[in-house]
Amino acid sequence: MDQDQLCQIAALFGQEPVGEIRELTSGHINRTFLVECGGKALVLQSLSPVFPKPENVMHNIAQVGRVFADAPDRSVQIPEYLPCGARNFAEFQGEIWRMYPYAGASGEMSPFGTGAAFGEFIRILSSQKLRLKEALPGYHSFQGYFSRFMAASSASPSRKPDSAVITQLGRLGETLSQVFTADLPKRVIHGDAKSANIVPGERPTVIDLDTVMSGYAAIDFGDMVRSVMREGVPDMADFRDLTRGFAKGLGGLLTKSEVSSLYYGILWAVGELAVRYLTDYITGEGYFRRSSGECLARADQLLGQLRGFMAMGGQITEMIRECFL
């Protein structure tokens, strides 16, 4: 995508003339550019082809924007997508593009602030009925990912992981199916609640809304914990602050059974991501824009993290209970 084409796309959103354009490469999925227009910094982004119906993604984002616009006294915000006619996206050469003001970071989010932001996000979206469409079929289906992983392992025995890893992940899937039953309430969740998706500010901005979906609050909790405590032995002071923040943001929304499921949400988030990276390593192609070697290294990190959380299960569960009292 050259500069002239990017300027043409920006013009579809009424943004011209365009000054400096710079690609942002920190994300793994979408192509993202930082565009200067009339002294304003804007994000111009194309949706990845991993989304089979990108218009569904933008429909869901519009639904979320409607609820946030009606929410009084909120302490978090979301990006305001620029209109292109009557829609919140533009089509250019077969791709879906969107544009919104750049939320520059003004510091680092604390674990408490991260938890509070994602908790409030779920609470706000529980205030109204949303008519969401499926954006990414099978997303956060642990069993679906595990089945694809097993099929890929069988088709490529030279890259098949150790049998102990396969056994561990298979048992995790059985445990999750026993905890996350049809009786457990579902909420509208972010779906990718990593700490990098909160931009600090006077009112923190929750970004990357492509995966908003109906799901268990424990999934967002697990993603937060996984992303805040990536390395080594979990820092329990940070974990306590993150959990206290999440509880505060939710404001008593969760049922007792949902609170009891939060620990298993950590195992789900870490285990699922490990399975997905292992599958990309085996097949050499997939969701993440990383080489096979990078995928294997990341999977090994996640498996180590999973073992650490399992070893501290009792302590983690008790701390969650205390934070939600």
Features:
two-stranded antiparallel ribbon, 325 residues, 5-stranded antiparallel sheet, 9 strands, alpha+beta, 13% strand, globular
Strand order of the largest sheet: 1-2-3-5-4
User: Roughly how much helix do the residues carry, as a percent range?
Assistant: 40-55%
Order of helices and strands: HEEEHEEHHHEEEEHHHHH
Give the low-pLDDT segments. Answer: none
Structural class: alpha+beta
Strand content: 5-15%
Tertiary shape: globular
Cα radius of gyration in angstroms: 20 Å
Largest beta-sheet details? 5 strands, antiparallel
End-to-end Cα distance, whole Å, is 52 Å
Mean pLDDT: 92
Treating each run of at least 4 consecutive H or I residues as one helix, how many helices?
10
How many strands appear in the DSSP assignment? Answer: 9
How would you sum up this structure, described in words?
The protein is an alpha+beta fold. Helices cover 49% and strands 13% of the residues. It is built from ten helices and nine strands. The chain has helices at 3-12, 54-70, 111-125, 142-155, 163-179, 217-228, 236-250, 256-283, 292-311, 313-323, and strands spanning 18-24, 31-37, 40-46, 90-92, 95-101, 187-189, 198-199, 205-206, 213-215. The chain has a five-stranded antiparallel β-sheet with strand order 1-2-3-5-4, with helices on one face. α6 packs antiparallel against α7 (236-250). The longest helix is centred in the C-terminal third of the chain and has 28 residues, at 256-283. The protein starts with a helix and ends with a helix. The model has no long low-confidence stretch (mean pLDDT 92).
